[in-house]
Amino acid sequence: MFIDKVEVYLKAGNGGHGAVAFRREKYVPDGGPAGGDGGRGGDVIFVVDSGLRTLMDFRYKRKHVAQNGENGGNSKMSGKDGKDLIIKVPPGTLVKDKESGRIIADLVETGEEKVIAKGGKGGRGNQHFATSTRQAPRFAEGGVVGQERSVVLELKLLADVGLLGFPNVGKSTFLAAVTKARPKIADYHFTTLTPNLGVVQWKGGNSFVMADIPGIIEGAHQGTGLGHQFLRHVERTKLLIHVLDASGIEGRDPIEDFDTINGELIKYNEKLAQRRQIVALNKIDLIPEEEQEETWGIKRQLEEKGFEVYLISAATKKDIDKLLDRVIELLDEIGEVPSIFEEEEIEDSLVAQQGEKNFTVRKENNQYMVEGPDMERLIHSVNFEDIDSIRYFQRMLRKMGIIEELEKMGIQDGDIVAILDIEFEFFH
Question: Any idea which positions bind GTP (predicted)?
Answer without folding.
Answer: 165-172, 190-194, 212-215, 282-285, 313-315
